[in-house]
Specification:
The chain has 658 residues and is α+β, with helices and mostly antiparallel strands. The chain has five domains: 7-161, no CATH class; 171-279, no CATH class; 284-388, no CATH class; 404-555, P-loop containing nucleotide triphosphate hydrolases (Rossmann fold, 3-Layer(aba) Sandwich), CATH 3.40.50.300; 560-653. Helix content is 40%, strand content 18%. It has 24 helices and 23 strands. The strands form six sheets. Strands 7, 8, 9, 10, 11 and 13 form a six-stranded antiparallel β-sheet that branches. Strands 17-16-15-14-18 form a five-stranded antiparallel β-sheet, with helices on one face. It has a five-stranded parallel β-sheet with strand order 20-21-22-19-23, sandwiched between helices.
């Protein structure tokens, strides 16, 4: 083969050339390595006289050496017929990415990832080309690849088929438009590779896109640095590589051998920090799809239970609930400029469709979303995978200790209001809400009624206390309007617990409290949802509220029968593995004689359980007996401070309750 003095001139004179291959060699390094293999020649006797002059120049190799290998190779696609063929091949099969060949001015770099991934498609599709010249140029390209890289590509294919990879073939793992995944904080994260990776000395850089959701769905792109797992802690002996005798080792050679050894190291593909999802063997794809469908179902709004496994893998026993509503979150946390129309990459109409756009879309969705917690009234970042449909406790209302006719009224009003849409008020938009007042002493079941109503109607319970609202009339009005607006939009049961300060009768001297009552009356007038007020001071009730309240229910102090029912409900809910349930049932009559309210009974059960757990014993009556002794002592002390009167008698004397 004759050397070409001027490559550009040669190409110009030979317009039939399909491709040009450029190879780079590090000659200095090769010469330095091969120089060590030369030995000085021994001269025969008749050359002894001339030895001093020629001896410095007489060396020979002990054995034939390997030819120099190139350190890099590039290919330029020249033929117009070849370029036209590649474009036509893409028209036949869209998986053949024409742009990937032309993006660097038709220059490709070995190991030619485009040809590795597309070679079989190109080979199959070339048969459908109608232009013979185009076929010839494609055949030239494929012939060179088969000859120069066929073994290399086959080696990579063989490894990948077994779920393995070496650093030498690391970059070949990633093709365009493939789902790739990584793990972060225990969560799988998937994205779509765009184009081919860029390779570095010990890493691969891959540009990927995924989907985010903040009220609309948007595409986000990012560079992913995929490092090869470090093996620096394991030094490979040179003799294990079978390349050179140990006596020739020096620092430079050792490092080169180590680098070569690392290139030959084989790992499971799934051990990489990012890898194509198709190599997953533990069901991650199904996990991603399930998570994506859950987010798609929450794209408008969703009231969900949140179950986070603890470190032992067991879920919580009490699950907080969150409202997932990204539009509301954005309105509450953005200024006017940020509320400008967002970029919607999903396209018109897709948001309203029941089915998600594609499987790829579901796989590449984000891992977290914002949710509003009704337990603490804060927005929090939630891991989507831990969101679940709520298991509504519809039996809670049946277990409520309240006279049947009162329970029936509450159930009827709530059920009808949930389904009704027409107003009976003369003024449109006025009086459409359902406002109920629950009044009675502490621990008689008022708050439990509101909680049970929410469970019965499958609606969120938005509980507000006076401490949340404040006492400044202007602040109170803004806060109440915001709460009631959210309550209406989210279909909440709004509970204003211990609303005494807003319900108290107005006076001629306390102008600030009068303003509070007036604000509260005005806000209630136009509320269209369900609002439940609770108070244990109805004796100071302002008469203006009577016309605003559709139903007022009195909760009398528990009698022995009521206490028996509450004790029975708690004992029946105990686990037989940790409590002597049958023994405790026999003690129900005794337990019911203690004059406790519902909240005190609950606290007694909880304290007895903790005492049994501390003693490492099975819960029985002796634990309740010990707790009740202490509780009775406290009750007697409180009664003594009231002059021997019970709480109810003291409240009656103060005209707080009848």
């Amino acid at each position: 083969m004759n050397p070409i003095a001027d490559v550009d001139e040669h190409i110009e004179d030979n317009d039939h050339v399909s491709i040009v291959i450029y190879r780079t060699y590090y000659c200095y390094e090769y010469h330095e390595n091969i120089q060590r293999e030369f030995e000085r020649l021994k001269l025969s006797n008749h050359h002894v006289r001339t030895a001093p002059q020629i001896r410095p120049y007489l060396f020979a190799l002990r054995e034939d050496m390997e030819v120099a290998t190139c350190v890099s190779e590039e290919m330029t696609l020249l033929s117009h017929d070849l370029k036209a063929a590649l474009q036509e091949l893409e028209d036949i099969d869209s998986r053949i990415n024409y742009e990937s060949f032309m993006q660097d001015d038709w220059d490709l770099t070995a190991p030619y990832l485009q040809l590795y991934h597309f070679r079989d498609l190109i080979r199959q599709t070339t048969l459908r080309l109608t232009n013979v010249e185009e076929q010839k140029h494609v055949d030239v390209l494929l012939s060179y690849i088969d000859e120069a890289f066929g073994d290399d590509y086959a080696e990579a294919d063989s490894l990948f088929a077994k779920g393995l990879v070496s650093q030498k073939h690391h970059s070949k793992l990633f093709g365009p438009n493939e789902i790739v995944m990584t793990m972060k904080d225990g969560q799988p994260i998937a994205s779509v590779s765009k184009g081919f990776p860029k390779t570095g000395p010990s890493n691969v850089t891959l540009y990927c896109e995924d989907w985010s959701f903040d009220g609309v769905f948007s595409i986000n792109g990012s560079e992913n640095n995929i490092s090869w797992p470090s093996t620096s802690s394991e030094i490979l002996p040179i003799v294990d590589l079978n390349l050179f005798p140990l006596k020739y080792d020096n620092v430079g050679t050792k490092q080169r051998l180590l680098k070569r050894g690392q290139l030959l190291e084989i790992l499971p593909i799934v051990d990489l920090n990012l890898f194509p999802l198709k190599y997953d063997n533990v069901g991650i794809k199904q996990r991603l799809l399930k998570r994506g469908k859950l987010l798609w179902n929450c794209r408008k709004r969703g009231y969900m239970s949140y179950r986070v496994p603890d470190s032992g893998g067991d879920p919580q026993t009490v699950y907080p609930r969150y409202m997932v509503d990204m539009n509301m979150y954005r309105q509450m946390h953005s200024n006017e400029e940020e509320l400008a129309p967002q970029r919607d990459d999903l396209g018109p109409g897709s948001f309203e469709r029941e089915e998600a756009p594609s499987e790829t879309f579901l796989l590449a969705l984000q891992t977290t979303i914002q949710g509003f917690g009704f337990q603490d009234k804060k927005w929090r970042t939630l891991t989507i995978e831990y969101l679940h449909d709520i298991d509504w406790n519809i039996k809670a209302f049946d277990r409520l200790v309240l006279k049947h006719h009162k329970k029936e009224l509450v159930k009827a009003l709530v059920t009808v209001h949930v389904t009704a849409s027409a107003s009976t008020d003369v003024i449109e938009g006025k009086g459409n809400g359902l406002i109920m007042l629950l009044h009675g002493g502490p621990g008689t079941g008022k708050t439990l009624t509101a909680e049970s109503v929410a469970e019965l109607s499958s609606k969120p319970l938005y509980r507000v206390t006076c401490g949340d609202i404040g006492t400044n009339p202007e602040d109170v009005e803004k806060y109440l309007e915001a709460v009631l607006l959210i309550g209406k939009l989210w279909g909440c049961i709004v509970l204003l617990d211990e609303a005494d300060v807003f319900l108290e009768e107005r006076s001629q001297t306390d102008l600030q409290r009068n303003a509070l009552v007036s604000v509260f009356l005005r806000v209630l007038e136009y509320y269209e949802g369900i609002l439940i007020l609770t108070t244990n001071r109805v004796g100071t009730f302002d008469e203006a509220f009577k016309s605003r309240i559709q139903l007022a229910i009195h909760y009398p102090a528990l009698d022995e029968k009521g206490r028996w029912e509450i004790w029975s409900n708690f004992i029946n809910s105990l686990k037989r593995e940790t409590a002597k349930v049958d023994e405790l049932k026999l003690k129900l009559d005794v337990l019911a004689r203690s004059k406790l309210n519902g909240r005190q009974i609950r606290n007694t059960v909880k304290t007895a359980m903790q005492l049994a757990e501390f003693r490492k014993e099975v819960l029985d009556y002796t634990h309740f007996e010990r707790v009740l002794e202490v509780a009775d002592e406290f009750e007697k002390y409180i009664d003594d401070t009231h002059g021997g009167a019970t709480d109810d008698e003291f409240a009656k004397a103060q005209n707080i309750r009848a």
